[in-house]
């Protein structure tokens, strides 16, 4: 079910949003989608964050967008580096914005706008480092069971 939520065009638009957001930053953004989330969504996001090795970025500036589509749960999780510099309610405000889009059935647009907002903050606090800056994590959407 998770892989069927987004068409191939939607997936391409989401991946392009990730690539676009990462152009101006050394930060890393990943999207993980699965059908169900047993238990607390934030706890599951932490497990996925570690499984995707997002905590291993040089500046600890990875951001995970985690969606459990059948259970209608999602979380945004930033690593310690980015969490130290964004406003206290930053992730919650992005989440609220995305939830509004999701409720209107605009899943792709909601996710893209959330990625753009995260990318803006990453760019402010972790600007692109030129030739020394490598893409540490894949931009592809990952899917779970």
Automatic annotation (TrEMBL):
Residues 3-120 form the TPM domain. Coiled coil: none annotated. InterPro entries: TPM_dom. Transmembrane segments: none annotated. Pfam families: TPM_phosphatase. This is TPM domain-containing protein.
């Amino acid at each position: 079910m998770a892989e069927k939520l987004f068409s191939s065009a939607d997936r391409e638009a989401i991946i392009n949003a990730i690539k676009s957001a990462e152009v101006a930053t050394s930060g890393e953004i990943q999207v993980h989608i699965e059908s169900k989330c047993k238990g607390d969504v934030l706890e599951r996001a932490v497990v996925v964050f570690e499984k995707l090795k997002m905590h291993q970025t040089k500046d600890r500036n990875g951001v995970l967008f985690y969606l459990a589509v059948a259970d209608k749960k999602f979380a945004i999780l930033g690593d310690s580096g980015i969490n130290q510099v964004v406003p206290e309610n930053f992730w919650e405000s992005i989440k609220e914005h995305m939830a509004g889009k999701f409720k209107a059935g605009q899943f792709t647009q909601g996710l893209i706008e959330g990625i753009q907002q995260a990318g803006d903050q990453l760019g402010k606090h972790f600007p692109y480092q030129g030739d020394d800056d490598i893409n540490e994590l894949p931009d592809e959407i990952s899917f779970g069971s």
